[in-house]
Structures are given as C-alpha cells and as structure tokens.
Amino acid sequence: MELRISEVSKVFPSHDGGAVVRAVDSVDLTVADGELVTLLGPSGCGKTTLLRMIAGFEDPSEGDLYFGDRRVNNVAPNRRNATLVFQSYAIFPHLNVFENIAFGLRLKGLREGDIRSKMEKVVHMVGLGGMETRRPSQLSGGQQQRVALARAIVMEPELLLFDEPLSNLDAKLREQMRIDIRRLQKALGITSVYVTHDQAEAMSISDRVVVMKDGRIEQSGCPVELYARPRNRFVADFIGKANFLEGTASEGGILLGGKSYPMDTAPSEVGEVQVVARPEAVVLSRDEGHFHCDIVRTTFLGNLVEYEVECPNLGTLTVHQVNPMTGELFRPGESIQVSLRPETLHILEKE
Amino acid sequence: MRKSLRELRLLCRDPLVAFLVLSVAVALILFVVYPLGMVLVKSFQNVEGAFSVENYSRFAQFKYLKSALLNSLSVGVLTGVIGVLVGYTAALTMVRTNLPYKRFLHLVFILPIIAPPFTSALSVLMLFGSNGLITRGLLGIRNYSIYGFKGVLISQVFTFAPVAYLTLRGVLESLNPTLEDAAMNVGASRWQTFWKVTFPLSLPGIASAFLVVFIESLADFGNPLVLAGSRFPMLATQAYLEITGSFNLPLGAALAVVLLVPSVTAFVIQRYFIQRRQYTTVTGKPVDSTSKLIGPGAKVVLHGFLVLFALSVALFYGVIAVGAFTKVWGYDFTFTAAHLLYAFKVGGQTIKDTLIIAVLATPISGIMGMLIAFMIVRLSFPGKGLLEFGSILNFAVPGTVVGIGYILAFNRPPVVLVGTLTILVLNFVFRYIPVGIQSGVAVLRQIDPSIEEAAQNLGADGVTTFRKVTLPLIAPAFFSGLVFAFVRAMTAISAAIFLVSANWNLLTVQILNQVGSGRLGVAAAFSVILVSIVLVAIGIIGKLVPGRTGGASAIQVREG
Ligand SMILES: Nc1ncnc2c1ncn2[C@@H]1O[C@H](COP(=O)(O)OP(=O)(O)OP(=O)(O)O)[C@@H](O)[C@H]1O
Ligand SMILES: [Mg+2]
Q1: Distance from first CA to last CA of chain A, Å, rounded?
Q2: Which domains does chain A have, with CATH numbers?
C-alpha cells in the first residue's frame, strides 16, 4: 500500500502563552508500496509527531493523509491497520509474551487455531521461541523489543511504523536488530516508516532517507544520493562527516584555495559557493599534491585513520585514510601534500 | 472554540466514550450540582417559600449564629495547625529515620482514619468527661466540663492529624533525599539543610495538608454534636439543629451556605494554587531514604514524640474497647458482655442496613471514580475542567450541606427518596467518588500512555483499551480506593443523618443516639462492632486483590 502525506502540518498550542510550536511544517512525502522510508533528523525536529499523525494519535492541523486512495484524517487509530513499534516498547506489563503478541489478533476475533498458527510463525521469525509464557519483566531489553516487533507484524498491517525502536539497545544488539528488521520488512513487503536520529541506522536500513529539520523536509533520497549529493550544509553535516570549503565556481570548474578543479557537470551557479568534500575525498601524500599542509592530529580507528590537517589555503580538514595497514601512517607535526578528488566534490545550495 | 469543536468531533468517533462522558456529566449535575443549587435557593426563601433574605439578616443579627461561624473557623484553623505540626513531625521521622517497628507505628497512626470520625469524641468523654478516667479517676476532679472548645479541639486533632500525617508522608517520600545529601555535601549543617532544603520543598505539601484538615474540620459533624454543647455552637451542627430541632429548613440552608463558603474557598486554594506548586515528582518508586538529615540527638527526641503520640492513640481506642465491656464507666469496671448483647439486640437490623448500603455503594463509587479518573487523565473533551471540578467538588462540600441538599432535592413528589435505600446509596456513591478519582488519577499518571496507545494501535477502541489494558493496571489502586470508600461508607454520618429513616438506619447514627442518651457503654460496643466489620472487610478486599505485580511493573516500564 502506498502512503501519501500531503502538505501536512501540526501546530501545538503553547503552554505558557508564548508562540505556538509548528512541530511539523507542510510535509509532502509519498512512500511507495513495500518501501522503507526513514525519517532522520535531530531531536525535536518533528519525526515522532509526524509518525504519530500517521498512526492516528495526533490529528494533522493542516493537510491530508492517504493510505492508498483512502483519506485517513478522520479514521480512528484503532481502524488504521498501521501498527507501530514504540520507542518505549509499550509492552502490556500484565500479559505474558504470548498474550502481548496475540493481543491484536484476539481483538480481531480470530479463531484460537488461527491465532496459534500465526503466533508460531511470528515467534520464530523474531527469535522468541520458547519464551511465550514469560512475563515482560523477565525479558531483556532486546527481547522486549522483539515482542514489540512481533506484536506489530503479526497483525499483517498495511503499514509498519517504527519510532526509534533501537535507541534503548546496546551497539552490538542494535546492529543485529537492524539487519533483522530489514530482513523481515523485505520478506513481508510491508510499506514502512522508520524514525531515527542515528544516521548510520538510517543509511543501513532504508530504501530512502528523509532528512528533517524544524518540522520541514530538508532532502529526501536514497542513502548514496544523500551522501554524495547533499542539498545543503545541514544535510551534508548530518549524514556522515564533511569538510566545507569556500570556492569560486565558473563555467569550466571550480577554484578552491587557488587551485582549479574541473567538474563533470557544469556548476548550477557561478560565483562564491560552498563545496563539500567528504573526508575520504582528500588524498594525503609525502610526494605530490596541490597544497602544503601540516598534520595536527592522528587517530587510529582500526579500519581507517582519521587525520586533522591544517591547510593554509583551505582551513582545517578532516581526512580519512582507509586500509591504514597497507599504507604508511603520518605523524602529528609532519608536513605533507594534500590533493582533492575532483569527482567527489559537490557544490551545496546556498542557505 | 475551534479546539473544543475538534475535541467534540474526536469524541464522536468513539460513540461509547461520548456516551460515557455524557452519562457522567448528567449524573454529576443531578446528584452533586442540583442538590447544592437547591440549598442556595432555599436559603433565600422564608418559611412560606417566598424570596427573602431574612435568613441571612438573622444570621447577621444574632450573636449566637455569628459565633457559630467564628467557632467553626477557629477550631478549624487550630486543628489544622496542630494536626499539621503533629503530622509533619511524625511523617518526617518515619520517612527520614529507620525504626524497627515502623510499620506497626504507621498502623497505629492511621487507626483513627478507619474508625468512625467521632469515636474520638466518645474517648474524650470517657477520659475527660464528668466520669472520665483521667479527670475523675486519676485527678479526682468533680464537675469538670470538657464540653466546648477544648473538647472539640482535642477530639478533632486526634481524628484529623492522621490525615495530615498520610498526606505529608507522601510528600516527604517523594522528595529526593539526594537533595539533602547535596546540601550537606556543600557544607550545610543538618539544621540548615532542613530549613533551607527540606522545609521549603515540602511547604506546598504542608499548606495543602493544612487546608485539607481545615476543610475536614469544618465539615466534621459527629465530634461537635457530641462535645460542642449548647454554649459553643458550631456551624455544621447548628444547621442540623435548626432543621431537626426548630424545623426551620430555610435557616438551616442559609447556615449551610455560610459553611460552604470557607470550605470551598479553602478547597479552591488547595487545588488550583497549591497543588500545582508541589515539587514532588512522581517517579512511581518512592526513594528509600538514607539521608543523614536527622542526627542521633534529634532522633531520640522525635522517637519519643512518636511513641507518645502512638500511645495516646492507643489509649483513645483502648478505652473504647474496654468501655464496651465494663459495667458502668467511671464507677464499676467489672467485665460484662451486656452492652454488646444489647447492641446486637437493638441494632441487629441497623448493622445489616449499614452493611447492605456500604456493600452496594462501594463498588459503584469505585468504578465511577476510576472511570472519571480515566476521562480526566486520558481523554480530552469540551468541559473537561468543569467535569473534573464537579466530580471532586464533593470533597469540599461538608456533609451537612449535602444532606440538606438531598432533602431539598429528592423529597418532593414525584421523587420522594429520603429514607430509602436508593438515596443512601446514591449519597455515598457521589460523596466518595473523589477518593477513587484521586487514587485513579495518581496511578494513571504513572502509566506510560504509549501502553494504551499500543492497544489502540492494535485495533482496540476506547472501551476495550480501558477494559483490557488500563483496568488491569490500575486494579491495585482501584482496590485501595474501594477499601477507603467502604470505610467511609461504614463510618460516615454528616450527610446520612438527614437521610436515614426507621426502615434504613446506620450504625453511626445509632452510636450517636446512644451517646446522646448517655449510654456510653452501648455506644462503645457499637463502635467496637463497627471497627471490627471494617477491619474484616479490609482483610477480605485485600485477599481479593489480584496479583499486585501488574500495576507495579507498569510503573517500572515507565522508568525503564
Ligand atoms: N504534545 C505536545 N505539545 C506541545 N509541543 C509538542 C508536543 N509534542 C511535541 N511537541 C514539540 O514538537 C516538536 C517536535 O517534537 P517530536 O517529538 O516530534 O520530536 P522528535 O523529532 O521525535 O525528537 P526526538 O528525536 O527527541 O524524539 C518539539 O519541539 C516538541 O517540543
Ligand atoms: Mg521522537
């Protein structure tokens, strides 16, 4: 089922008579059938509010929501068939694992036999086999999370919603759950909206990422697109690390720190521009390069080395050198040559 | 306006919920607001029923009536001050020190809450009356009169200090002791820590406890009726006497209105100005205090005080227990079961009536209280603030006023209800829902709303969510609300005394009658029976409570 969000806004009245809060501001977004879209953004940017409007817990102040062709603005949350995996899990503390997961099925009035067979499938799918009779308080955080997930997917919803489902888990478990969620979602083919403020999570799990700020969509695109061609500084900064360089664009290419780089496509605007160069787009060498710079700091991270480099013409740069074990390491204080890979440079829109 | 329209639309999406809201509103208007309105209307009529302000001008003229107001207010303020002093000291000691027999002391302190509110009046008579154990027996004083100001004050302090204690204990328990540790950590002495941290933080709670005791003292009926005497008129009893003694209903109504003004004022201040300011954060888990606030010296003094107070309470209720089994109090202390047998003989029917009424009223009031609590915390609909105010208003309205209101409202054809079972049950239900509401609201605020949203998200409508998720989680609070409602229904008197009849009578009224006719032994026997029933009932309800784990773990989920 396709989800269409059309010019939706949410205004909260202020509590103390101050200005009202526009938590979500004219958001326009379509999630295709079977697609997993992530809402990504800093705390307070309106992700949860948007998700709660989709689930029906908040009413849009303006705009329309469509599930397929059906306008759902006035449909009660219990009639939407869009199940939500809550950030706090929201597991019913008075019911055991089985009854928690079967809760919605029982409300549908399914026969006991049907419930059992559906349950059996889902319990194994999420890896909770053998824990059906446990009480929620006897489960670890990760297991509780799986109950919440099972409870949502067993309903075979038209739309699956996630509100930072992994934020309470430790890093290792988080990665495992990411993979599991993605696998389940693909296998079941359920249209999904996933909220997170962790960009790595967003990149790894989504078909498409929607970056939000102050209730508005800054940019939406597949992970590669967002990383390689961020629209503006906010998006570039939020997704991955970035160096921002001041340059001058002309028909032929771009002038950075006195050195001209050709561009594949003609720049959209000429004159003063801001350019983003990802840390791995900067090449360090003892022998040749375009700029004379100094290493300020070297941090060994295992799969890569991160350098902080001071360049007279460009400013301070963050540089990633991958596969450090195969090349040579530079020490702080060393003077080196720096060059940029022209194909990875990207001109940002003016803000 | 647009907001309330939207809320209305939302409400209509769930027709059952809309229906519930409407029914509750209608019930509140009929059984809370309407009787009060009738009191107000009646107070502006003369005996013939024409409009007149003569009742109020009489009140302004007659010194006797004016002094009733003054007496009620001064007793109320003093009871409040002393009650809060005792209650705060006890609560602070209980919360901030470790005593081995803490639980036992706690039970002794709250004993007056489960006893009928005027049993302490009976004790005061048995201890300090003309045949009193202390006055005549110990000190050998003859013709000592305990009636009047001091009698009422002593008796009320014993009745209401436990209320202050319970309130303040809750307040102090939720004050994080880490704050005190922090103060001492930066160099404050214990004394400074108390005055600069603990006391200011508990000040809103203290003010709140004071006002609650003040309200209860103003509304108190049994103690003044037994102990005030004719030279010390008090408002609640005077209104009753005008109606039952002089058959002057309009004047009684006017006195009720005069009584209502300070009560409701105190209530509004307590609710809308003070409760908002409380610093207590409900985390669901009271922190077990390990603060070093109370030093060893202070601890000894405070313990001494606690033990003294507990002993006094024990003495107060001990004399009643003894009095129920002695021949003639003050003269002949030989054992007898005669009072008890007599009580069962003349009062058997009354005991049954009281039980039936309480058993009927308790669950209805409990369920309504929870429902209203749910509406207040979780739903939004136009007029919610009003509904909330209406539903807890009865907490502030003295029973006397309610009783008069019910006579006025439900004693005219076609609805002649006074003296019937229906009216007594209705009266109790609407008088004690505030208790259920308050405990319900407190628990609901601790249950993460997303648990209920999850149920809705999985297809449950409002009513199913309440039944399958909310109700099981609030069950423990529901049952403790039930206990309280039951205790109140068994021990109440002020409103009910207007509504009883030969067919349906109450134990409390019986006790008061026995005291009135000087049969202290029988009154004591009745009191013993009453308290026994209450204790047994608490035990039974406690057994019925389904595993307490549900609610407790709900609260933990919120924290996790
Ligand atoms: N019920 C409410 N009343 C008033 N303001 C609200 C309400 N709910 C959210 N807000 C405000 O709306 C804005 C967006 O909140 P929202 O919860 O959607 O943020 P979020 O992106 O989910 O943040 P986080 O990552 O911290 O969860 C915030 O400024 C918040 O304070
Ligand atoms: Mg959020």
Answers
A1: 36
A2: 3-233 (3.40.50.300), 241-347 (2.40.50.140)
Nearest CA to ligand 1 atom 1: A12
For A139, the token pair is: 């489960």
- Nearest CB to A93: which of B6, B450, B557? B557
CB-based contact (8 Å) between A82 and chain B? yes
Section B116-144 average pLDDT: 79
Chain centre to alpha carbon of residue B516? 24
pLDDT in tens, B312-366: 999 988 999 888 898 877 777 788 888 888 888 888 888 898 999 999 998 888 8
Degrees, nearest 5: CA angle B228-B232-B234: 75
Choose among A286, A287, A283, A288: nearest CA to A307. A283
Q: What is the CATH number of domain B44-280+294-323?
A: 1.10.3720.10
CB atoms within 10 A of CB A28: 13
The pLDDT value given to residue A167: 84
How remote is the CA of residue B470 from the centroid of ligand 1, in Å? Answer: 25
The residues near A94 (Cβ < 8 Å, ≥ 6 apart) are: B469, B472, B473, B549, B550, B553, B554
pLDDT of residue B552: 34
Most confident of A11-15, B326-330, B394-398: B394-398
- The distance of B12 to chain A (nearest Cα, Å) reads 10
Q: Distance, in angstroms, between B450 CA and closest chain A CA?
A: 6
pLDDT category, B179, cuts 50, 70, 90? confident
pLDDT at A236: 93
- With a cut of 70, say whether residue B553 has pLDDT above it: no
For residue B341 the two structure tokens come to: 């047998």
Contact B457 A77 (CB under 8 A): yes
Looking at the complex, report in whole angstroms how far the Cα of residue B443 sits from the nearest Cα belonging to chain A: 14
Indicate which atom in ligand 1 lies nearest the CA of residue A41: 21
The residue among B457, B545, B553 with the most chain A CBs within 10 A of its CB, best to mutate, is B457
Q: Which of A11, A47, A84, A87 to mutate to test the pocket of ligand 1 (most atoms within 8 A of CB)?
A: A47
Going from the Cα of A163 to the center of ligand 2, the distance in angstroms, rounded, reads 7
Nearest to B115 by CA among B314, B399, B383: B314
Structure-token pair, residue B555: 């609260």
Please tell me whether the peptide bond between B414 and the residue prior to it is cis, using omega within 30 degrees of 0. yes
pLDDT of A262: 82
- Helix A112-125 to helix A97-108 angle (10° resolution) is 130
**How many other CB atoms are there within 10 angstroms of residue B34's CB atom?**
15
Cross-chain Cβ contact A86/B454 below 8 Å: yes
CA distance A93 to B362: 27
Minimum-distance CB partner of A151 among B458, B472, B553: B458
Side chain identity at residue A328, one-letter code = E
For ligand 1, whether the C-beta of A336 sits within 6 Å is no
Domain with CATH 1.10.3720.10 in chain B: 1-39+336-560, 44-280+294-323
Ligand 1 pocket, A21 CB below 6 A?
Answer: yes
**pLDDT at position B484, please?**
78
B1-39+336-560: CATH number: 1.10.3720.10
Q: Is the CB of A10 under 6 A from ligand 1?
A: no
